[in-house]
Each structure stands twice: as structure tokens, then as C-alpha cells.
Hints:
Blueprint: H1 4-15, E1 22-28, E2 31-37, H2 39-45, H3 47-57, E3 65-69, H4 74-86, H5 96-108, H6 112-125, H7 127-132, H8 134-141, H9 148-160, H10 163-166, H11 176-183, H12 192-205, H13 219-229, H14 243-250, H15 259-270, H16 302-311, E4 336-339, E5 347-350, H17 357-364, H18 377-392, H19 399-406, H20 415-437
Parallel strand pairs: 1-3
Antiparallel strand pairs: 1-2, 4-5
Helix pairs in contact: 1-4, 2-3, 4-5, 5-6, 8-9, 12-13, 14-16, 16-18, 18-20
Amino acid sequence: MCLPSFTQDFNRLYVDTTLADLTLIVGEEPNTEEIRVHSPILWARSPFFREVLNALQTKRTTFEQKLKVPFMDPEVFRSVLKFIYTNNFSMKRNNGIDFLDQLVAADDLQVSSLITYIQDKIIQNQQTWLRDNLMRIWKSLADRPSCELLYNHAQSIIASKPVVMFSSKEFLTLEVDFLVSIVQRDDLIREEAAIWEDVIRWGIAQHSHLPEDVMTWTPENFATLRNSIKPIIPYIRFFQIPSAEFRRKIIPFQQVLPNSLYQELLSFHLEPGYEPPIPILPPRLSQSPAKSREKSPSLSSPLRRTYLTRNCFANAPVIEIKREQESEAEYPDEKKINISREGSPRFRYKRRTSPSHKRIMQQFRLYYDWRASLPGKLTQVMIAQEMEKMINDKTRVTTTIISQAYNMKEMPKNELKIRAFKIWIDKQREKMKHMRKN
């Protein structure tokens, strides 16, 4: 128990420097101040000064000692010094900036009781300022273990309201370790696709030379971004991202991801019931398990159409496909048809009134390993539209038709060739319809 008279006596020592035996030069030019102190009090109350004074003890001479403290503002130091003498803490200005500055000073001087007191004061009475200065608090206290109470409190606020961090100007200047510590939290309340976009935005901001238009990026540009966000990728829940957002936000940056991870993501979204062999991070606590893929996948879905047109048909070889024998009882009212084309293998399949998208996908899966790109965005859109028509017209799409349509030495590179190529595909479709009638 601290008696009032005892505190007043030590306050007299703080005010009266008659018996002071040490001069502290606090601050840096031009903002410096000489402060007279009593070394025994500093030795007893501050482990920092205890270590410094013990080191000076062997060098003490008869003349007065002077000690520089350049890492601290004089006004902030005086408020901490008063607490060292009197065990009372007061502020001249009633704002949180003084609190944080004094907390850092108390940590530098290793005054543990003041560290605890200031942290409690900020958490209890400075909520408004705390929310407005989360990034400053977080960055200032990241490497100060004794201030973990306030640091963890700031992290929990960021996790519950991450838009405060992700929309701040300081976000793009964060160190990668800070960003990892937030992204890896299970209680982060934010959609996974939005987190991925924030990470990409942060990674691009680290390299000002990267073009704004991702469509113009070179492999070297993607490699630069990949190296920047590499430590963060393991903590993003990619398998919790729905297929529609996967197509829009992940596929354009597929070169940034490890190839094995990207292949597993494709299989996860394109194949119903696929279970990845790699560990999958669970949904965050604020989210229910995401319905990241459709229960009844459709070939005409944007994700599948985009992937097929970009990756599956360029330089596709003609391959003989051995289909499993189907029983007569499976489709009793359907006819069997033999299709033969010059230079192509023979296929024996059953024509259905409404062809199953799933069966068509089984044929297309043989083409997943070809990664050649189509020659232009216009061609990709045109082919995607043609594939959509084939499905809507209930045209039976076989590997023979696909190979003949896309196994060309040179893909069209201008509007004239694109039109000619489109007419050629229309003819192939008409031939298929004619074969069905016969």
C-alpha cells in the first residue's frame, strides 16, 4: 500500500533536483532537453537504467555524469519519469497519441507497471482513437512482446473489421510478416475471394514497374508477383472460394500459384465429387463451409467454358478414345450409331434426346493437359460462343469434331480469318446434324 505522504515525499525529489547526481540529455537536435535526476531512484525503478548505471559504475569519476537518451521525446520522457518517481501517471493532452508514445517509452525504459497500466487505459477509454489508429498501433507494437495485450486486442479488431486495415493507406506499406499474421487467423471476417484480391493488390503495390493491365503481363511479371506473395499463399483458403469467383479472380493469376495447387483447384471445381489429396484449410470461423462448386456441373457454365477455350483446344491431337461398353438396359429406347470419319478413329456411342453435359465433359477431360493459349481474346470469345451453341442445339460433340475443329497449324489472327473459321465450324455442325437424321 502506497501512503499519500510517501508519494508526496518522492514528488518533492522529482521537483527539487538539489541532490540530483546525474544529467540526462533527452531527445535529438534541435529538440533536446537536459533533465537532472537521482540515479538511485532510476536504478531501483527501471531495469533499463539499472543496466546502464551498472555499466557506468566502473567508469565513474569525481565530475558529474551526463547520459544521452536520444531515442525519446523530452515531453514523453518527463511523463514517464514522473511515474518512476511518484507512481502517478498523468497526461497533458487527452488524446491517444500520448498514450501510445508513452507506452513505447515505458517499454524502452522497461517500466513494467506503467506498460500494463497504459495498455488497460487505451483498451478501456480510447476505443474511438484505437479504431482510427489500428495500423499505427499494430506496426508500433509488433516487435514488443511486453505490449502483447494491446497488440492482440488490435489484431482482434482488425480480424473482426478487416475493411479498416485493407482500405487504409498503410495497408500497401505493410511488411509481409504483418500481412501473414492477419491472413492466417481463423477469425478473420472477410470473404476468401476478397482476401485474395487484397493480397494481389498488396503484391502489385510492392513493384511499381508492373503494368496496370494484367492481360499484358509477361511471365517475368507473374514471377515477380509470385515471389512477393509466396509466404501468404499457404494461408489462403482457395478451396472455400466459389466457382464463379474462382473463374474471375483466380484463373487470371494462375501463374502465381504453384502448379500442383492450381491443378488440384481445377479438378476440384471441374469434377463433381473430387476430393483433393492435399490438406485443405477449413472455413474461417465466421463462415459456413462454402458451396464452392455446383452440385450438377454444367459445361456451359462460365468457369468451364473459359477454361476449355483457353487451355484445352489449342494444338489438340486426335486421340482414340475407348469408351466403356454400355448395357442395353441403361437406355432401352435409344439407338446405337456408328460414326466414322476419314483419318479419325471409330466411335460407337448412344444418341440421347438430351445429351448429358457430364458425358460430354468426360470426353473433354482428355484435353486438360494441353496448356497452349488461343491467339487472341476475340477468338476465345468466338469459340466459347460456338461451344455454347453446340450444347444448346443438343449437338453431340465428339473428340473427332473437337480435334478437326481446333487442331490447326495456324489459328486465325484477324477478323477475316475468324469469320472463315466460324463458317467452317458451322459446316461441321451441319454435317453432324445431317448424320443424326440419317
